[in-house]
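> tool_call: predict_assembly(chains=two)
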Amino acid sequence: LPPIDARMREIIKEQQPFIRDEIDADRARVVFEDHKYKLEIIEDASTDPMSATEAGLVRTYENPPNFIDLCRGPHVEHTGRHLGHFKLMRVAGAYWRGDEKKPQLQRIYGTAWASNKELDEHLHRLEEAAKRDHRKLGVELDLFSFPEEIGSGLAVFHPKGGLIRKLMEDYSRDRHAAAGYEFVNSPHISKADLFETSGHLDWFADGMFPPMELDEGQRYYLKPMNCPFHILIFRSRLRSYRELPQRFFEFGSVYRYEKSGVIHGLTRVRGMTQDDAHIFCSKEQMPGELRSLLTFVLDLLRDYGLTDFYLELSTKPAGKAVGTDEEWDEATEALRAAALDMDLELVMDEGGGAFYGPKISVQARDAIGRTWQMSTIQADFQEPQRFGLEYIGADNERHRPVMIHRALFGSVERFFAVLVEHYAGAFPAWLAPVQARVLPVTADHEPYAVRVTERLRADGFRADMVEASEGLGSRIRKAKLEKLPYVLVVGGDDVDHGTVGVNARGSEQPERDVPVDTFVARLAGDVTAKG
RNA sequence: GCCCGGGUAGCUCAGACGGCAGAGCAGCUCACUCGUAAUGAGCAGGUCAGGAGUUCGAUUCUCCUCUCGGGCUCCA
């Protein structure tokens, strides 16, 4: 048998015509009697009034002499049209009609373009995307790994990745503190009762790690979410309306038993840390709170270097949902109003909300145009009710607060992966584990190189030095591969004049004889500029 | 979880009818002291993912498990 793509090229060359016909369902059942999946489609087409053909008829396309298939069409006139520039990419199983309860068929994926040039460009883009894959860069830049001994979907961060992560978290904490959040902490495990009250065990038990059974019969679970813990903090004493809104923030580690086939690098893991916060406010406060929250989220994402956004609003799902229509309308309108204020494209996801509340999510496009779902802001009508949350209002009556879930990063791990891919590993100065590396030309210049390094460190920068035990060219090459923002070469001239040779990442030519103070000011500017 | 394909040194990979395990890079040692992308020599480095089976003998063949990749389904 010839390879599939070779046979495809033959068929293209043959310019087989596509002959359209419409036949009645009975006839179709005969023609396709050996094809059980096609018979299923014929049944649906002959009974579905919305089918592409008039009732009772199904459309076929035939390539004489011996191939006929069902298709709504339209088709090009013959097989020689348009398809000369394709490449088969992969094979995969796909569930019949997208239903995991149904059998799987083999699907062959390919890509086709109007010209070889466009095909090559497409393949080139795929290669470029592969180069910035965070899983590959994670190894190359020594950022993190997934030791087999620990378990699937459970990452360890190495010193450089750990440092980047710390810088991400530090900045996030600073900004949250400035925005009126309070920092809370909660344990990683809890008795089953908590997740029964929250409802997680009812609808999400499959997604949780199995329970730990204690001798006295108590069952404990690893937490899949932080919200019940924050709710208990809110409920720990009687709250006054004067205290609202209450904003509780935590880098909370959660564990979810993701199905083995869905685990993917740092973007889909079984153990992760959410930059999670829950806002408890009055109904009246909600619109203002959502607006300032969305501003805060976008502002912060921009500081991390993401600048191209659109928003998606997910509304009430059909069927059962908790909360009254009035509550849904209020919250949805508040989210919509906040979104419209942002002057960004707003995409509606009608009926896409969770059953417990509407949500807005921020989609960000990265450096090569891929979109990532980033932050989510979600109203929740369910948990305040399940936990019986209350506060005392100005009227001296008890009221139920509104609860807003929100995460900017989603998870620190996932956001880390997005940043690695967005920057292709070339982190901006404020996030770079090493901001400047000093390279003495020969051993004679090492004392000066040490002084330059110490100077940078004294000014609060992350600088290191590699001594002249190997060639300068080799050391420069290694520093470039590490994607450091700056490489400083110091030789005799520099020792004499108090200067450095500056190699900025991305520029071909070094700048010679730059005074150290000038470089320090430049680096300081880069760090302040953030993303 | 399902379909398909992988797992050989830290990394990238070669290898074999079933018969002592290979390279480059990285690492270490020594020499070289060099002004912008790989200085040279030497040394060390392996339960061939793990377990079971077949066999005189398995890294190689078979089965199971773990794990990775591409998809499907899922992502509160």
